[in-house]
Amino acid sequence: MGMSITVDAVARQAALAFPKYSALPGRERARFLRAVAGKIEALGDELVEIVMAESHLPAARVMGERGRTCGQLRMFADLIEEGSWVEARIETALPERKPLAKPDLRAMQAPLGPVAVFCAANFPLAFSVAGGDTASALAAGCPVIVKAHSGHLKTAELTAKAVLAAVAETGMPEGTFALVTGSGQEAGQALVKHPSITAVGFTGSRAGGTALMASAAARPVPIPVYAEMSSLNPLFLLPQALKNRWEAIAAGLHGAVTGGVGQFCTKPGLVFVLEGPDTDHFEAALASAIGGTSACPMLNENIASNYADRRGALAEHPEVTTLADGPEFQAGLFRTTGSAFIKDRHLQEEVFGPSTLLVLCETEAELIKCAGGLEGQLTASVHADGADVEIFRALQGQLEKICGRLIFNGFSTGVEVCHAIVHGGPFPATSDGRSTSVGTLSIHRWCRALCFQNLPEEFLPDALKSSNPLGIWRLVDGKRTASA
Amino acid sequence: MGMSITVDAVARQAALAFPKYSALPGRERARFLRAVAGKIEALGDELVEIVMAESHLPAARVMGERGRTCGQLRMFADLIEEGSWVEARIETALPERKPLAKPDLRAMQAPLGPVAVFCAANFPLAFSVAGGDTASALAAGCPVIVKAHSGHLKTAELTAKAVLAAVAETGMPEGTFALVTGSGQEAGQALVKHPSITAVGFTGSRAGGTALMASAAARPVPIPVYAEMSSLNPLFLLPQALKNRWEAIAAGLHGAVTGGVGQFCTKPGLVFVLEGPDTDHFEAALASAIGGTSACPMLNENIASNYADRRGALAEHPEVTTLADGPEFQAGLFRTTGSAFIKDRHLQEEVFGPSTLLVLCETEAELIKCAGGLEGQLTASVHADGADVEIFRALQGQLEKICGRLIFNGFSTGVEVCHAIVHGGPFPATSDGRSTSVGTLSIHRWCRALCFQNLPEEFLPDALKSSNPLGIWRLVDGKRTASA
């Protein structure tokens, strides 16, 4: 009960902040985002130590993630300071047109309203309080209410303090940002159901994400939910590539499976191999590397026990052979056949942690059929050299339909934060395959197109004024231009 | 049962067509869209007569709508022939970057897959078989299955024949287009639930739209639904404008309310007026015009009887006064007060037909409060002159939050088909306020972002090749350019 009152109060405050905050020029919001980055950096070792203590991540990883978090905030600051991201479109009037005059029409991307962001267990900084969704929503002009993750509450509170200090320092409206805590799903559900909330960002389990989707759809006014939920990130190893590079591929794959204790949404959890002369030594090299991987603490107890359960279920599957067990049964390598994979959709359930499943296919046709039966994924990767071209082309056709990012001769872990990245993909990888959670394109999840007809220059947003005071790129009468 | 078999067969065929159709160059799909327009025009008077007989629309309106339909098809042909609509983004690799190499990343808009389009009762051509959603989806690279509307089945069949003739003539894959008929909701529901369908376009009632939203959300793989459902298109008449132009405003509003027998989704159904010295003569002029409007046949029996019911309920509302009844109780003008409007949300229910409700407000504050209580709308319009500036600014803030298109000193009927139009708006005007159903921007409803990492030039789509063979506008390392 106390929790709902808090949620109600902050959501109302966010709704009051929205018209003021969204009306600020891009350069003012940019100044705010840069201040957030600066305040986070100014937390120094205190933040690093708290993240390490709460999430059991090593210092280098935490510092890297902090760098990415601040880099994202500054990337969005640059984007909105420049301003062309609003995709302004202008059609000038033709008052003399027959039979009907053409009105003056101007459209641009406009922010939706207050946004609820749920912290991710596995990225206590980069996908949490001041992470990607918060940065993109604040950049778009949406106030943000963050729901903390129980796994790293102190991290959340410390980061929120930095954001609120930046709000105060740069004079942003009260209610531009708030953090809500509270155990379990109560506060989260209250937030998603609150009438002032206009969109939701979430990174977590499929069960959690689909519950939020259902709540959002059942509201009197349904709202969009961007939930990143689960992905197996299938990897396809074609014969010529395996022949040429089996040792390097085994080493790279080992790193991708066990890096960060396998707790990345882009960890390759399915590896399809066409059986051939190089399968055995590749498999042996990978098994040896995975079997020799030291056990490390996982993010939290819940994740560790889920991993043990899922890993155990995979090991006991009648069509699955265990190829390697790391110390304390942590890292794991398993094997099944293409025909078993095609028959049993349970083999497509995510095992969140440092394990992967090799799927040995007897024929190219079986490999392609496996690809055709895959659910939606964040990524799909293929290693292909020279003579693999023909199989690659067939695979590309299948994989483009089900993934957000197709990787050639590489591994899916590592998500570059930039203009051209897509970190998203068809359901169940995400709730809404039209969107990305990483990179500048993610700003559009919090926007809708808004159009003005015959509005005098004085009432138009700067982005749509005829004089183009922001000097942004626009589509004017069908032509792209950065001039007035 | 027979119906579901048909739906299953055409949906499977569409899924088979998808990889072939979507892989065609834009100029080939453009040739197809232009052929569709040509085939529709070649149907000549036969089509016009069938539409007139089925939908009771006058010849001039039918010919106008045919012009718009063919114009839309050609607009999308131009868009995809030019090609920049895919929003290509390229980030070139930095293999030497420390601590991590930057990969080559390229992203573009890619089609979702087969799309289901539901014909609209009120636009037998422009929002039906070869209407806006069909044109934009085919342009994006999505096969289309159209569900006919029972009100104009022969129109649907004749138009479908034209589309299928264009499919054959231009060599499009079998399954690129199909029409399904059948009574009631059975075929429609089967279509929305079919696993091959990846998105839905719908124009119709709120009950119909929300039923489709629920079905789509309950699928094993949920899909987006773009339903345009209901809108009252509130119009605000400010004092100075009414003083200067009350006669012209009354005449224009009469035309907007009764044009097309009030069967446009953009008909102004709510007119807010600040009580003042000019209210009475404006009201009298409008009542006289509406009272003198001849009755005309509506689109179908169902729409006519719903209109009679809704109009009757409004007339009997205890806080509503009837100001004018046209012959046979068709066109109607009603009046209520701002305070009654604020209290009763039922006064926000759409009355689809030639009637409108005046809401007389006693104070500016009441007028602004009425605006703040409005549900999502396709459009909102304000007439404001000189001294009305201050009230207008306050209204603009409220109305931008709830509408897709804000109109100044004009009326909402008439939707220009162009780059800068938005025909959409927050729920319940549409199911998804992020989208438009009219204009070139509507192509994005059928797309998602797809990213390629380190893919060799030979495997990249032309839009993403380094050589830029299509000569399209792209974002390359953060810079907009149409060069290689």
Describe the protein:
- Two copies of one chain form a homodimer.
- The first copy, chain A, has helices at residues 2-23, 26-42, 44-55, 59-82, 132-140, 153-169, 186-193, 206-218, 239-258, 279-291, 301-316, 338-343, 364-372, 389-402, and strands at residues 88-91, 105-111, 115-118, 144-147, 177-180, 199-203, 225-228, 235-237, 270-274, 321-325, 332-337, 355-361, 377-383, 403-408, 447-453, 474-476, 479-481.
- The first copy, chain A, is built from 14 helices and 17 strands.
- The mean pLDDT of chain A is 96.
- In chain A, strands 10-11-12-9-8-13-14 form a seven-stranded mixed β-sheet, sandwiched between helices.
Beta-strand percent range of chain A? 15-25%
Termini separation of chain A (Å)? 54 Å
Largest interface: A-B, 70 and 70 residues
Strand order of the main beta sheet of chain A, please? 10-11-12-9-8-13-14
How would you state the average pLDDT of chain A, rounded?
A: 96
Rounded to the nearest angstrom, the radius of gyration of chain A is: 24 Å
Oligomer state equals homodimer
Put simply, the count of helices of chain A is: 14
- Based on secondary structure, the structural category of chain A is alpha/beta
Would you identify the regions of chain A where 5 or more consecutive residues have pLDDT less than 50? none
Number of strands of chain A: 17
Q: How would you describe the shape of chain A?
A: globular
